[in-house]
Amino acid sequence: MRCIVEQVIFLYSYTYILQDLGYISDEISATIANMTTSKTTKINQIAPMGNGNIILIGMMGAGKTTIGRSLANCTGKPFVDSDHEIQARTGVKIPVIFEFEGEEGFRRRETEMLRELVKRDNIVLATGGGSILSKENRKLLRRHGTVVYLHAPVNDLLRRTRNDKNRPLMQTEDPHARLTELYLQRDSLYRETAHLVIDSSKQSLRHLANRLMRRLTILSQKSNLDKDTMQTITVNLAKPSDRSYPIHVGSGLLQQIDLILPHLPQKRVAIVSNTTVAPLYMEKLQTTLASEGVTSVPIILPDGESYKNWQTLNQIFDALLSHRCERNTAVIALGGGVIGDLSGFAAASFLRGVPFIQIPTTLLAQVDSSVGGKTGINHPQGKNMIGAFYQPNLVLADSDTLDTLPEREFLSGIAEIIKYGLIRDLVFFEWLEQNISRLLERDPDTLHEAIRRSCENKAEIVVADELEGGVRALLNLGHTFGHAIENAMGYGVWLHGEAVAVGIIMAAELSRRMKLINQTDVERIRKIFVQTGLPVVAPKLSPEKYLQLMALDKKVSAGKTRFILLNRIGEATMHADIPAAMLTETLQACSADE
User: Fold this and answer.
1) Do 2-222 and 462-590 agree at the fold level?
2) How confident is the model at residue 160, as a pLDDT?
3) Of 261, 380, 514, 556, which residue has the fewest beta carbons closer than 10 angstroms?
4) Does the reported pTM lie above 0.90?
5) CATH T-level fold of 462-590
6) What is the CATH number of domain 228-405?
7) Which residues on neighbouring strands pair with residue 538, listed in sequence order?
C-alpha cells in the first residue's frame, strides 16, 4: 500500500512540476489526475477530514485544480471545479463565453454556478480566479466552507500560465503586466475571503498537499478549543507611577469586548490599520466594540515597511484632527509591527499623549514589537531612528489572526522567538529545538506557549530597563547587522525577521571569533534557523557598506558601534571594542558569494 501511495504522489508531483514549468495546462493536469483516481480509491481514507466544504481560491496558475484534486484524494471528498462545471453546463469553453457574452456575462454565470455548488456538502471546490470580485460571492464562499487562498508571486503565475491558450484574460501582448494588474486588484479580496493563506510557489505537490492538510486539521481543532484557555502576562511598570498593563494571549480574543472595554476612557476610538489587515479584521473589531456602544473611526494606511515614515504618520494625525478626536479617544493599532510603531508614535504625540491599545495581527508583532512601548518611524539613513517610548494600555494577541498570515511573515516572527532563548532563556531554546516542527505547523498549543514565553521574557526585560539604558539592549541580538541589511536592500525587500535571522548568525560567528562560544554552538544556532527556512546567509555587500550603515545604529555610543554577542546559548552580553579586522572577517564569512 505504501508503495502505491508513493507512486501516486510522485505522479501528481511530476504533473505539478510540468504544469509549473508551463509545459502542460490545468486541463491536461486534471486529466492525468483523473487517471489516478481509480487507483487511489482505497487510499483516500488515510487522512479523512470532517464534514464540510474546502474551497480553494487564488489567481490563475496558483494550482487550484491540481492541488484540489490531490486534496480530494487525501480526504475522500468529491472534487468540483467551478469553471469546468460552467463549461459542462453551457457546452462551450470559457474563452467562447467571454467572446460572446463578455466578462460581465461570464461573471453572472459564475455566480449562479457558485450558488448551486456551495449547497453541496463535503466537497473540495476549486473556483475561478475572478470569483472573488463579487462581494456576494465572497460572502457566499466564506459562509459555506473553509476557504483557502493559494498564494503565489506573479513570476510563478506567469511561468505556469504562459503556454495556456484557454485563459481569455491573458490574451495580451504583455502577460506579465496583465497578471500584475490582476494580482494587485485581487490579492486583498482573496485575503478578505480566506480562512487560511497557503504559499503555493516553488513547492512540490506532495509537500504542499501535506502542509495544507495539516493546516486544515489544526483549523478544525481550533474551532473546538476551549475559549477559556487565554493566558495573561502583566508588564509591571510601577515607576514613576503605576503604568502596568496586561498582555492577553489566546484564541478568539477579538470578540471579547470585556477585555477591551476597561481600557477605554470614552466610548469612542480610532482604529489604525492597513489595506491588507483592515479587510480581514476591521469589521469584526468594530462589531465587537459597537456591541457595547463604542463608536470607531477607521484609519486605513498603505501596507509595507516602506510607508513607515513622516508622510504616513501625518495621515494618522490628519484623520484624528478631522474627526475631532480628544485626549480620551483611544488609538487602537490593528496590524503588524509597522502599524503598531506608527500608531504608538501618533498616540504618544497627538495632544501630547492619548490612550493606546495594541492588537497585533502578525507573529512578530505579538511576540516582540507590540510589547515594551517602542514606537517610531524610519529615516532614509536608519531604521527606527525617530520615535518615543510610549507604553500601551493593553496588548491583545489573538492567535486566530495568524491563520491568514502568509508563511514568510509567520517565519519572520519565529526569528524573534528564537532570539529570546538565545539571549536569556536556555530552557526555552531547548524547548524550541524539540518543538520547532510543531511550531512551524502552527499547532495551537505550541504556538500559544511560544508566544506566552516570548512575552514573559520581554516583559521581564522591559520592567527591569524600560528606556533601554542597560539590559534591554540585549533584545537587539542580530539587529545591528539586520537593520543594516534592511536599509541597504531597501525597507521591505527583506522582512525584519529575515534580516534578524541572518544578523543572529553573524552575531554568533562574531561571538565565536571573540572566543565567547565555540563552533558547536554556532552550528547549533544555525541548525534551528535552517529548520525554519529562514535565511542564514547575508546579502553580498562590501564590509565598508555594512560598517557605514551599522554606524547609524541606535546603540552607537561615543562613536563606537556596540554589538550584542553571546557568552553562551542563553546568555547575551554587549561589546564595543571589536577589532576592525575581526568584524570584517565576520562580514565576509557570513555573506553570499559573488
Assistant:
1) no
2) 83
3) 380
4) no
5) Dehydroquinate synthase-like, alpha domain (1.20.1090)
6) 3.40.50.1970
7) 591
